[in-house]
């Protein structure tokens, strides 16, 4: 009896295994390869290496569960150079379901180009029924991909400008300073062909500056010396705009991307007294002489200006005024205005004027008598450079005592 039962079990198992084997053979014959998508994402990149996240999405189109194992992903450059070999753990993929496999790994460039990569994925696929019989077959998938899109997200450099003006001359004012260029990216960047145009409120270019090319390391800044000149008319503006333009980009692992950039910043114009620090004090002396005429005295006056500076100055609205002095009281008698005069560089310049002093204004009963205590001569002028609206004021006075004529 036991023999009969054992024989029956063997027969049933044989039939079952045969049936399962036949079904398995049939299913293996009609086994569809999983739909596979490989994505390479650059998490970080610098001049030496990149951190790449590999994502594999596999969709099982079969009516049965797939078994995957022994995944190996090889990354090759355009020239066939292997730059990475990854091992990923496999797993079961349910029917009509998608499973995701990920791996993060560093890739050293070693001079290789990453413009085009070939990803070769190999491993083992299989089916399992009731956890008893498992049939596996090897598979290989080759995909070409480009990671050049990472260079589309380059951030432009951040530029700060620090400048000052000095050494004013007839040609203009010199500008010197620093450019602080910061690279916000995680890879080395270059900046080249940089120019700076300085514009006034109307948009007219009134000056230029030159900047050297630079290579800025990732997440760092670099300071560059700048120099240039602005025209004198620029100093008539309240605010100047500095427009910085150039080309920035990267050349890394065979990837080459450049783009134009521009940055505007404002430059406040200092007061003329602050931008003339090298100008020595200008000395002025009054000389006067009088001549009697039928109408009155004519006062011949000379303003002697000593200019020790290496640049010519312009004296505007040079006003010669004469006052009668009686004690503490001053009475205006007459004046003369010279509209403009040039004060030569490193020389003494005389500006002449004459004022008629009518007898009725000069000799009138005021104070202690007809003759005043004295005459006060005041000369005032605004000094500047030709073409410049800003100026600084100088004045000088002289007193002639007349007590001896009483």
What's the story with the biggest beta sheet?
8 strands, antiparallel
CA-based shape: rod-shaped
Number of helical runs?
2
What CATH architecture of the largest domain would you give? Sandwich
According to DSSP, the number of beta strands is 23
Overall pLDDT score: 78
Q: H/E series, N to C?
A: HEEEEEEEEEEEEEEEEEEEEEHEE
Computed structural class: mainly beta
Catalogue the unreliable spans: 6-20, 22-28
The fold-level CATH name of the largest domain is Immunoglobulin-like
Structural summary, described in words:
With 406 residues, the chain is mainly β. The protein folds into three domains: 31-150, Immunoglobulin-like; 154-268, Immunoglobulins (Immunoglobulin-like), CATH 2.60.40; 283-405, Immunoglobulins (Immunoglobulin-like, Sandwich), CATH 2.60.40.10. The chain has two helices and 23 strands. The chain has helices at residues 2-29, 359-362; strands at residues 35-45, 49-59, 66-76, 82-88, 91-93, 98-108, 116-129, 133-146, 158-169, 172-182, 189-199, 205-211, 214-216, 221-230, 239-252, 255-268, 283-292, 296-307, 313-326, 329-343, 347-358, 374-384, 392-401. The strands form five sheets. Strands 9, 10, 11, 12, 13, 14, 15 and 16 form an eight-stranded antiparallel β-sheet that branches. The model is unreliable at 6-20 and 22-28 (pLDDT under 50).
